[in-house]
């Protein structure tokens, strides 16, 4: 059967057996279509039915999480862990706590994670998990009770050689601490079963900074190919969480100026550059909305979500040289992409997972703008998680500089792998194709080697 026909059939099958899982379908469509050049060249993947096999998670665990709130009332949430693929190593991928979490979101994130992890060159399989629990507005005590209840089920399915979760949206150092404490209590083992741990108890230096720093290293590598660099570039960044903050911090190190950030309530445009100490105080320490940043800096412009353009987001309507979407999925629409191009943007570098909608992505790929897909550009986080696992296994702790140097090298290698693969398949600079084929090939070859398991 011709490869395009096979891809069509598999996508129809996915649609049929995962109804309502729109984000998973969106990610599947993007990946499978971009694999066509490889599938046409090498028939083994169709012969071994790798497409069907790779699209279905090895295991999806869905569980009830009952916890007691501060008023003494029992609350219920849904917990998920999708162990997608272990062909090249133990499952690895973050946990997301956000009211929007459902099986389709966890599956899209887990599916992307397979290829991202393969691209790092490290031996880690793909997984993702989380819950529709919303940590916002909850007391520390409530967050702790929820994390303990969540881990009371999850601990049966994870382990340092089996599945090693980490953080994501809504799961930071505090949540990892409570989850780790409960794992230790239930099993009696002090093990590197989670990454993103505190520095005093097995964490890695530079893990917190890794995704944002890595995203900037990736962008610099990409621009350098075209004899450009980040120096003196004006950059728009969305989000104001872990990835966004450390993207901005690293941009300053490269002589660029981050001029925006956003959260779920609004967008800040600060023409002279985001002031990092204020931003960290507002978001990391006081957990306030960005309106508080505008109060500290009256010269900055704050646009609430209610004033966003229809079908668009204020942050992408600010003129910039490079855009760093670093908040959440589908936050950059077709209209946003068109405005970015019109305003002279030369590179869109995804820090978040699938922040670009499907129609925006196909527009961008035909435009004059360069595009770094998240599964390559944001892989610094998971790569540094793997460095944390290595340190745990050898009971060592490397310095910040040592980890940062390794991270920089890993990002350079990820870029080179994706770029060289794009050249191999005659689409130089198309990193969507390059990253998907490079990640898929490594996992698919391993699946074939391991037989029909
Ligand atoms: P955080 O929870 O630290 O921050 C998320 C940020 O995005 C917050 O500013 C949040 O605003 C904003 N946000 C969330 N949902 C929306 C929405 N619907 N509309 C607008 N803004 C929104 O998460 P991270 O920074 O860790 O993650 C950001 C992205 O990067 C995610 O896609 C994640 O999967 C991806 N990623 C993260 C990695 C990591 O190491 N942390 C690794 C690889 C990818 P508010 O404060 O109002 O909630």
What this model shows, in words?
This protein has 453 residues and is an alpha/beta fold. Helix content is 48%, strand content 15%. It contains 18 helices and 13 strands. The strands form three sheets. A five-stranded mixed beta sheet has the order 1-2-4-3-5. Strand 6, helix 10 and strand 7 form a beta-alpha-beta unit. The protein is globular, with a radius of gyration of 21 Å. It binds NADPH dihydro-nicotinamide-adenine-dinucleotide phosphate. NADPH dihydro-nicotinamide-adenine-dinucleotide phosphate binds next to helix 10.
SSE layout and pairing:
Layout: H1 3-17, H2 22-34, H3 36-41, H4 44-47, H5 50-55, E1 59-68, E2 74-85, E3 91-97, H6 103-119, E4 125-131, H7 140-154, E5 163-166, H8 173-187, H9 207-225, E6 234-237, H10 242-253, E7 257-258, E8 260-262, E9 266-269, H11 276-285, H12 291-296, E10 301-304, E11 322-324, H13 334-342, E12 347-349, H14 358-366, E13 370-372, H15 374-377, H16 380-393, H17 400-424, H18 431-449
Parallel strand pairs: 3-4, 3-5, 6-7, 6-11, 11-12, 12-13
Antiparallel strand pairs: 1-2, 2-4, 8-9, 9-10
Helix pairs in contact: 1-2, 2-6, 6-18, 7-8, 9-10, 9-16, 9-17, 13-14, 16-17, 17-18
NADPH dihydro-nicotinamide-adenine-dinucleotide phosphate binds next to helix 10.
């Amino acid at each position: 059967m011709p490869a395009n026909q096979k891809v069509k059939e598999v996508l129809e099958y996915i649609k049929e057996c995962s109804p309502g899982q729109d984000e998973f379908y969106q990610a599947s469509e993007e990946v499978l279509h971009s694999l066509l050049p490889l599938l046409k060249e090498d028939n083994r993947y169709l012969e071994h039915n790798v497409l069907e096999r790779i699209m279905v998670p090895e295991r999806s665990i869905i569980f009830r999480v009952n916890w007691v709130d501060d008023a003494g009332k029992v609350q219920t949430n849904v917990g998920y862990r999708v162990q997608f693929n272990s062909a090249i190593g133990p499952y690895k991928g973050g946990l997301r706590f956000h009211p929007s979490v459902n099986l389709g979101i966890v599956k899209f994130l887990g599916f992307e994670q397979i290829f991202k992890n393969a691209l790092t060159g490290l031996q880690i399989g793909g997984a993702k998990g989380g819950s529709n629990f919303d940590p916002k507005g909850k007391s520390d005590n409530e967050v702790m009770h929820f994390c303990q209840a969540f881990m009371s089920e999850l601990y049966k399915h994870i382990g340092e050689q089996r599945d090693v979760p980490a953080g994501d949206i809504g799961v930071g150092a505090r949540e990892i601490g409570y989850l780790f404490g409960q794992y230790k209590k239930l099993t009696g083992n002090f093990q590197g079963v989670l990454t993103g741990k505190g520095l005093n108890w097995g964490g890695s230096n530079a893990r917190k900074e890794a995704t944002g720093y890595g995203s900037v290293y990736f962008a610099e590598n990409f621009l350098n190919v075209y004899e450009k660099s980040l120096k003196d570039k004006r950059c728009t960044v969305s989000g104001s969480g872990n990835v966004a903050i450390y993207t901005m911090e690293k941009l300053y190190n490269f002589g660029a100026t981050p001029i925006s950030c956003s959260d779920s309530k609004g967008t800040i445009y600060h023409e002279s550059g985001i002031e990092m100490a204020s931003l960290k105080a507002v978001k990391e320490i006081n957990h306030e909305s960005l309106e508080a940043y505008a109060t500290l800096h009256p010269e900055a412009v704050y646009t609430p979500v209610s004033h966003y353009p229809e079908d668009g987001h204020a942050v992408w309507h600010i003129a910039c040289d490079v855009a760093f979407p670093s908040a959440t999925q589908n936050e950059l629409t077709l209209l946003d992409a068109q405005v970015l191009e019109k305003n002279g943007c030369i590179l869109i570098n995804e820090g978040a997972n699938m922040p670009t909608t499907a129609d925006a992505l196909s527009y961008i790929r035909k435009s004059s703008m360069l595009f770094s897909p998240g599964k390559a550009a944001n892989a610094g986080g998971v790569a540094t998680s793997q460095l944390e696992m290595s340190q745990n296994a050898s009971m060592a702790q490397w310095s910040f500089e040592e980890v940062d140097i390794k991270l920089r090298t890993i990002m350079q290698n990820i870029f080179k792998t994706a770029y060289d693969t794009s050249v191999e398949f005659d689409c130089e600079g198309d990193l969507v194709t390059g990253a998907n084929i490079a990640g898929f090939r490594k996992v698919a070859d391993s699946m074939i080697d391991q037989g029909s398991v």
